[in-house]
Design brief:
- The complex is a heterodimer of chains A (about 260) and B (about 220).
- Chain A has nine helices and ten strands.
- Chain A has about 260 residues and is α/β, with parallel strands linked by helices.
- In chain A, strands 6-7-8-3-9-10 form a six-stranded mixed β-sheet, sandwiched between helices. In chain A, strands 2-1-4-5 form a four-stranded antiparallel β-sheet, with helices on one face.
- In chain A, a hairpin with a 2-residue loop joins strand 9 and strand 10.
- In chain A, helix 3 packs across helix 4, helix 3 runs parallel beside helix 5 and helix 5 packs parallel to helix 6.
- Chain A is globular.
- Chain B has about 220 residues and is mostly helical.
- Chain B has a single domain, classed as MetI-like (MetI-like fold), CATH 1.10.3720.
- The chains are: A alpha/beta (about 260), B mainly alpha (about 220).
- At the A-B interface, helix 2, strand 6, helix 3 and helix 5 of A face helix 5 and helix 6 of B.
């Protein structure tokens, strides 16, 4: 990999279900440490696009490259599985509904994958769990079960679980959308902290205020295309496109009412 | 009701009840094994295995268990399968209940939230690791009660093997009716013992279910 190889490079991404095109030729390059927000109305394809980055929702066309490795390589099944399981360790993902493993404690949630995939000893895995939980302010809940936690706490544990794999990039798929309003801030705080540590992040969100304060770049998506992209100051204060303006106006009205 | 007669013959019925219990236990084990294999086939990535699983389920749920038993026990020797009545009973009933258990186990597995698979796969876990460490532990809890329903049906279903002359509870009742001409008493005895067996099995399943919930 030379200096010109982009950190994360998505080239001509396309996805369709039959004749329905949900992603229409999107290209995106993200630098190491950059924080990108993707906003847009529901059904715009932003979650699908995010989930294509780790091949959870495979693209029907185009390529995803992370540090010079093609994520969505076409390989025979067995080789593909081996390849994708390796690559996914580098791509952390946080879901709207947390998806913690309910049969495992907070500790178990975090140590499961590192123990299994990286061969960490119990002691090392425990230390790792403690470090990551401390990072999200959940160390005191290490022996709780997920069912004993609030939504915001669950999401912080889910973030710690993803971080424990030491990913190169973190994907957030509407990480705060399922939370009660009073619990959103604690998750936002954790994400801000990661931003200050220069974690590369791609954040699909409905929270314009958060996107504006944290992100380096904002993409506005609608109907499977990137309508407009730029620094948050431009996208939120002075958008070029009529569609962007409409979306932001409607969204703000929605927030106020 | 001739209670004296019932008191006189009940030890023989107790012995027969043991045969029913043995049949039930062995059938449950074989059924669970068939069910696990069947569910794995039904959920396979490969169409061939999915077809095998589906064919198994529709074949054995789509025909009477009695016909399956007759086919195995009476028809078996014609194609070189020699089994005694007890063996034929266990194998026939086990494969039969396995078809129902296939659907129970598969149902529990697909009832686990898709987000669980996504979270595990996103961390880099393989399909197999995800199934073993994330999905199955959760599905196991979900399948205990419905498997209990299958086992309940199976215990009562063991009465069918009377038709191939396995000396279990139902066949024993028929035998004593032949010599005493007291069908009411004899079937009452059998029925009562079936009830005890099913009650105990039901309690065991409820206990396992509670245990799984706490863990």
């Amino acid at each position: 990999m030379n200096d010109k190889t982009p950190f994360l490079d998505i080239r001509h991404a396309r996805k369709s279900y039959g004749s329905l095109e949900v992603i229409k030729d999107i290209s995106l390059t993200v630098d190491r440490g950059e924080i990108v927000a993707i906003i847009g109305p529901s059904g715009s394809g932003k979650s699908t696009f995010l989930r294509a980055i780790n091949d959870l929702d495979p693209l029907t066309g185009g390529e995803v490259w992370l540090e010079g490795t093609q994520v969505n390589k076409k390989l025979p099944h067995r080789q593909y599985e081996k390849h994708i399981n390796q690559v996914r360790q580098d791509i952390g993902m946080v879901f709207q509904h947390f998806n913690l493993f309910p049969h495992l404690s907070v500790r178990g949630n975090i140590t499961l994958a590192p123990k299994m995939l990286k061969g960490l000893s119990d002691a090392d895995a425990n230390k790792l769990a403690e470090e990551q939980l401390d990072r999200v302010g959940m160390l005191d809940r290490i022996d709780f079960m997920p069912s004993q936690l609030s939504g915001g706490q669950k999401q912080r544990v889910a973030i710690a679980r993803a971080l424990a794999m030491k990913p190169k990039v973190m994907l957030f798929d509407e990480a705060t959308s399922a939370l009660d309003p009073e619990l959103v801030e604690e998750v936002n705080q954790v994400m801000k902290k990661l931003a200050s540590e220069h974690m590369t992040m791609i954040i699909v969100t409905h929270e314009m205020g958060f996107a504006e304060s944290v992100c380096d770049r904002v993409l506005f998506m609608d109907q499977g295309v990137v309508v407009e992209e730029g620094p948050p100051s431009v996208i939120f204060r002075n958008p070029e496109s009529e569609r962007t303006r409409n979306f932001l106006r409607k969204h703000l009205e929605g927030v106020r009412s | 009701m001739d209670t004296d007669l019932m008191l006189k013959v009940y030890p023989f019925f107790l012995k027969a009840a043991w045969v029913t219990i043995e049949l039930s236990l062995l059938t449950t084990i074989l059924g669970l094994a068939c069910g696990a294999l069947g569910a794995a086939a039904r959920l396979s990535r490969l169409a061939f295995f999915r077809f095998l699983g589906t064919a198994y389920v529709s074949l054995f749920r789509g025909t009477p268990a009695l016909i399956q038993l007759f086919l195995l026990y009476f028809g078996g020797p014609q194609i070189g399968i020699q089994l005694d009545a007890f063996q034929a009973g266990v194998i026939g009933l086990g494969i039969n209940i396995g078809a129902y258990m296939t659907e129970t186990i598969r149902g529990a597995i697909i009832a686990v939230d898709k987000g669980q698979t996504e979270a595990a796969r996103t961390l880099g876990m393989s399909r197999f690791q995800t199934m073993a460490r994330v999905i199955l532990p959760q599905a196991a809890r979900l399948m205990i009660r419905p498997l209990g329903v299958n086992i309940n049906a199976l215990i009562k279903g063991t009465a069918l093997v009377a038709a191939i002359s396995v000396v279990e509870l139902t066949y024993t009742a028929q035998r004593y009716i032949g010599s005493t001409y007291k069908p009411f008493e004899m079937f009452m005895l059998s029925g009562a013992l079936y009830m005890v067996i099913i009650y105990v099995a039901g309690r065991a399943i409820a206990w396992a279910d509670r245990k799984a919930r706490i863990a």
